[in-house]
């Protein structure tokens, strides 16, 4: 899931396409002077971070045995090794302007505030009923079309899960009142949406080490349709940051709330076993004066109003970036300041976005510079072995295991957007071309049939996307999604000329 930091000025971001710019009207509350004095963030600061004003062609790729790719039920579509245009979301009739990618599902937003969903629906993450899908036999003809199909699975997919469908609009009462959706969120087993009036709707469930944890306190185990989360702040919610089985929320006063599983301290507080269901709701944990939040699978980030980057949660590969020490099972129990080294140690960094996977993290600056840190052995951080920094952690066999502090990527283009999956990453260059790296066996890196791990950021170049300016990207557990705008022939030629130079 891609997460971006709100701009601190009204000026247009020079490294971001104008198509990522707003597109939803926001209903603003009227505040008293006392109330307004607490406001750090506003929905107006965030609406342009997740919505495109131009409709996007949607591309998907990777492994989709749980219907993740959204290409329909045929068995041949379980594995797509390069980006492919989704045929069920044609731009002439479905104008998608945003999406959020979970572990095994995706939700998308169109310009009429309809939400589409596809992927695994075992615990209700799609927000609609998929039980009525007809049973289909194994597609015998799929092996005859030469589409790199392994066919080691037991036939076709559930047609209602593997095909994008709308969630009924009546599930979202704020739409009737004229409020717009400003952000989508997806965890491994849950989906959520944020409205311009601060309302949060969610569905699905949270899991923990023992299995299903639940959805809301001890009242709801699994929520299969969109449900309004009871208000948990007296201020308006302006941003969400979903992880694997938790969600962070930020209100306009700069207070952070956490909801879900806290077994890796990702909730920023200790959760007593006997109270974990009674406290299964969004709760503050003492983190204030925050202007931006982000989540990895089991670790989290927050940026204070004075640009201090904090992190907490699981840290056994140094993915929190707070220390050179690396230890199995290490946890950062309370938010700590991230440590930068060398020339950046005392420099205030203007962060544009943070994205993180299971054991690695990415920090993108406003000037397009990208820092990475965390696990190395599947190339999650995109640093070449011969360019590892001196603070790299090596195991007992003298193999590099992790880079525990933020490290600037060298010899890469300037980027405008980033996304991290469980063990792979994507970054969009300022010219709209996507680069990928990391674990390759599931083809989530989108670089073809070799299925090899990709050591450093490598351009995705294929017929489907070569004529597009990619705007939004997202990574799941073993698949990826991108959205882009088709370029004119003149724009394509100009881009290629600039790359040649």
TrEMBL record:
* Region Disordered, annotated ranges: 1-25, 140-161
Biological process terms in GO annotation = nucleus organization; poly(A)+ mRNA export from nucleus; protein import into nucleus; ribosomal subunit export from nucleus
Q: Which GO terms describe its molecular function?
A: guanyl-nucleotide exchange factor activity
User: Spans of biased composition, class Acidic residues?
Assistant: 146-159
Designated name of the protein: RCC1-like domain-containing protein
> What Pfam families does its record include?
WD40_RLD (PF25390)
RCC1-like domain residues are 58-481
Keywords on record:
Guanine-nucleotide releasing factor, Repeat
């Amino acid at each position: 899931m891609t997460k971006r930091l709100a701009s601190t000025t009204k000026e247009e971001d020079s490294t971001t396409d104008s198509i990522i710019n707003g597109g939803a009207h926001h209903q603003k509350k009227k505040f008293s002077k006392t109330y307004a004095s607490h406001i750090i963030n506003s929905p107006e600061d965030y609406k342009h971070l997740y919505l495109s004003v131009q409709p996007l062609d949607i591309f998907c790729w990777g492994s989709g045995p749980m219907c993740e790719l959204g290409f329909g039920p045929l068995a041949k579509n379980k594995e797509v090794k390069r980006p492919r245009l989704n045929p069920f979301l044609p731009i002439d009739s479905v104008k998608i302007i945003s999406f959020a990618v979970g572990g095994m599902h995706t939700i998308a937003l169109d310009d009429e505030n309809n939400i589409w969903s596809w992927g695994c629906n075992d615990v209700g993450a799609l927000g609609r009923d998929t039980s009525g899908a007809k049973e289909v036999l194994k597609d015998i003809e799929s092996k005859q079309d030469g589409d790199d199909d392994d066919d080691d699975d037991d036939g076709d997919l559930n047609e209602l899960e593997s095909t994008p469908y709308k969630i009924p609009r009546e599930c979202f009462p704020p739409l009737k009142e004229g409020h717009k959706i400003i952000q989508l969120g997806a965890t491994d087993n849950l989906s959520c949406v944020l409205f311009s009036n601060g309302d949060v709707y969610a569905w699905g469930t949270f899991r923990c080490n023992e299995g299903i944890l639940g959805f809301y306190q001890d009242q709801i185990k699994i929520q299969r349709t969109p449900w309004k989360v009871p208000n948990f702040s007296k201020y308006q919610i302006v941003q969400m940051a979903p992880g694997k089985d938790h969600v962070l929320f930020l209100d306009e006063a700069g207070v952070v709330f956490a909801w879900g599983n806290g077994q890796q301290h990702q909730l920023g507080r200790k959760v007593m076993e006997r109270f974990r269901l009674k406290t299964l709701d969004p709760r503050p944990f003492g983190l204030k004066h925050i202007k931006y939040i982000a989540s990895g699978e089991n670790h989290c980030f927050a940026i204070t109003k004075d640009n201090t980057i904090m992190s907490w949660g699981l840290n056994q590969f140094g993915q929190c970036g707070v220390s050179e020490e690396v230890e199995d099972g290490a946890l950062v129990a309370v938010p700590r300041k991230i440590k930068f080294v060398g020339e950046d140690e005392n420099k205030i960094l203007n962060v544009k976005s943070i994205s993180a996977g299971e054991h690695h993290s990415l920090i993108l600056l406003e000037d397009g510079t990208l820092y990475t840190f965390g696990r190395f052995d599947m190339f999650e951080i995109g640093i070449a072995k011969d360019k590892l920094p001196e603070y790299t952690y090596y195991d007992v066999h003298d193999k590099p295991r992790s880079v525990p502090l933020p490290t600037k990527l060298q010899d890469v283009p300037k980027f405008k957007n980033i996304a991290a999956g469980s063990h792979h990453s994507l970054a969009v260059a300022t010219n709209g071309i996507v680069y990928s790296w990391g674990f390759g066996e599931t083809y989530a890196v989108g670089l073809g049939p070799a299925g090899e791990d990709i050591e450093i950021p490598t351009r995705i170049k294929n017929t489907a996307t070569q004529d597009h300016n990619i705007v939004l990207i997202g990574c799941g557990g073993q698949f990826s999604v991108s959205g882009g705008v088709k370029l004119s022939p003149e724009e394509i030629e100009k881009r290629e000329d600039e790359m040649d130079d």
